[in-house]
Amino acid sequence: FRQNPFRNDEQDLLYYTGDRGRYRMDGSLEILGRIDNQVKIRGMRIELEEIEIVLGKHPSIHKTVITIQVKAETKYLVAYYTVTSSQAESTPSTLRRFLKEKLPNYMVPSAFIKLDAMPLTPNGKVDRRALPIVEISRNGLEEYFVAPRTPTEETLVRIWIEVLKIKSVGIYDNFFELGGNSLLVFQIMSRLSKIFEVKLPLTNFFEGPTIAKLAQRIETIHWATKSLPTTNPDEELEEGEL
User: Fold this and answer.
1) According to the CATH classification, is domain 151-239 in 1.10.1200.10?
2) DSSP letter string over 133-150?
3) Which residues contact 82 (CB under 8 A, 6 or more apart)?
4) Taking burial as the number of CB atoms within 10 A of a residue's CB, which of 23, 25, 71, 123 is the most buried?
5) How much is the pLDDT for 75?
6) What are the φ and ψ backbone dihedral angles of 212, each rounded to 5 degrees?
7) Phi and psi of 38, rounded to 5°?
8) 166/138 Cα distance (integer angstroms)
9) Which pLDDT tens digits describe the chain residue by residue (242 residues)?
10) How many Cβ atoms are within 10 Å of 240's Cβ, its own excluded?
């Protein structure tokens, strides 16, 4: 909070949001973006420079820039990078694993784009507006796709596709890297409870946000209780839609 510069009253405080804005001719306020590079994704505030600093410590990285792209009203982190002459591997999977060891999941970019050189402004700074637009689909996810192997995994895949509104999901794809957020987690958990008749702690989801991990946990519970559901998963999916 800061003292209101428009009034001579020390008790009159204004909240400093860090956003840039301007008044339009009709009196409405237009938000132009952040003064800094702080963004909000999945309910969490993120400093883009923090990710850049960590990724920049990888031996293969020469320069990196983290940006935000929006698709279907969902925000995604995208990493652009150039490499050094180091022989260290710099594939998206390698860089993702590197970041996962040092940052929480919500700070790991959904896509990693290798550039020959960063676009620069006349002043020599990175021209973020000139960075290529990325088609967020499976780009930047694991480089291999593994289809569901069991009925449990098949049902989970259908649920994720409906909730995330995407075309395909591999069993090792990370829910949050696909655009998932905390609100969608509750939708997923609600459907799991109705279809599989299990109550998983939220920690199970956040600790293993993949089809493979969730299916393993569900099947372990059913094995322990020996009470596999007898209902048709497709019918339950229709009844469980939110």
Assistant:
1) yes
2) P---SSTTS-SS-----S
3) 61, 62, 63, 64, 114, 115, 116, 117, 118
4) 71
5) 78
6) -60, -45
7) -85, 135
8) 10
9) 677 777 888 777 877 666 667 788 888 887 765 555 677 776 678 889 999 999 999 999 999 999 988 766 677 889 999 998 767 778 888 898 899 899 988 888 888 888 989 999 998 888 988 988 776 655 455 445 778 989 999 999 999 999 988 888 888 888 887 778 788 899 999 999 999 988 888 888 888 889 999 999 999 888 877 655 544 555 555 555 44
10) 17
The identity of residue 211, as a single letter, is I
Q: Which of 238, 142, 125, 232 is nearest to 191 (CA)?
A: 238
Domain residue limits, the chain = 2-33, 37-130, 151-239
Specify the residue for token string 């609600």.
190
Phi and psi at residue 79, in whole multiples of 5°? -105, 125
Tell me, which fold does domain 37-130 have in CATH?
Answer: GMP Synthetase; Chain A, domain 3 (3.30.300)
> What is the rounded CA–CA span in Å between residue 69 and residue 79?
10
Residue corresponding to tokens 């939708």: 187
Backbone angles phi, psi at 148, to 5 degrees: -60, 145
* Residue 110: other Cβ atoms inside 10 A: 27
Q: What is the pLDDT of residue 1?
A: 64
pLDDT at res. 181? 79
Q: Which residues, 6+ apart, have CB-to-CB distance to 79 below 8 Å?
A: 51, 55, 64, 65, 66, 95, 109, 111, 112, 113
- Token code pair at residue 136: 């967020």
Which neighbouring-strand residues pair with 44? 41
